[in-house]
Amino acid sequence: MSAWPILPFAVLLFSLTSCEEPQQMTVPDQTKRTTSTIEQTTTEQTDHLIEETEESLMSYPSGSLLAAVEDNDRKKVEDILQTEYSIDEQNDKGETPLLIATHHDFVEIAKLLIDHGASIDIQDMIQDSPYLYAGAQGKTEILSYMLEHRDPNQEIVNRFGGNALIPAAEKGHLDNVKLLLTDARVDIDHQNNYGYTALIEAVALRDGSEIYQQIVQELLNHGADKTLRDNQGKTAEDYARELGYTELLAQLTKS
Question: Which CATH architecture has domain 63-156?
Fold first, then answer.
């Protein structure tokens, strides 16, 4: 009768230990906390992105763009312009957002609206348009941007029948006069309801001071017609003589 072989102790010990279930690796608490923080941050970022997207796509009630421009809130204006909002909405005075921005000389907002297609020709209840108002009231930077990016409708006139050049000359806005004359799309000899041209108004309705001497010279340099008469039958030269504006008279009579 053969005896069971005596196994070496080391082999026996290996056999016993190999039958035990493997132990799971313990993850340090710090690693767990780091992983949790990353997951939370990622979730927060995703939620924030969703909120921003929803906000950019949300619809705004009527009047929102007008109010945002009035408040000079560029960020709100930008958000609204990302939606299908009517950029040329009008308030009860007929003012568009661009006209309001021009009124207040909100240059950056005006440029933003122009870039997004806002009309420069829509008139309010007193027949001001963004283009006409910018010309008349010395909003030179906005006017310059309009001329660079739009083709103004020169057939649209203000409540006095004038174009952008006539009030610019009469109000002493030399930079606007230069800008409009250099652009050359405005009619230098346009006559308003009173028969006044830019040249006649710069002489007849003002004080003959140096700024008007400069404006008159700019108009003459660009070929303004000195012979045109207003509804009273008077030329710019007639007014300069009547009012005693010797410097202007010298400019107008110079060959």
Answer: Alpha Horseshoe (1.25)
Instruction: Count the Cβ atoms, other than its own, within 10 Å of residue 129.
Output: 24
Q: Is 152 helix (H, G, I), strand (E, B) or coil?
A: coil
Span 94-144, pLDDT tens digits: 999 999 999 999 999 999 999 999 999 999 999 999 999 999 999 999 999
Kindly report whether the global pTM for this prediction surpasses the value 0.85.
no
DSSP helix/strand/coil, 128: coil
Query: How many whole angstroms separate alpha carbon 119 and alpha carbon 80?
Result: 17
CB 138 within 8 A of CB 105: no
pLDDT of 59: 84
Task: Show me where the domains of the chain are located.
Answer: 63-156, 163-255
| Amino acid present at 238 | D
Residue 66 CA to residue 39 CA, distance in Å, equals 42
Nearest residue to 200 via CA among 164, 218, 225, 175: 225
* CATH number assigned to the domain with residue range 163-255, chosen from the 4 options 1.10.10.10, 1.25.40.20, 3.40.50.720, 1.10.238.10: 1.25.40.20
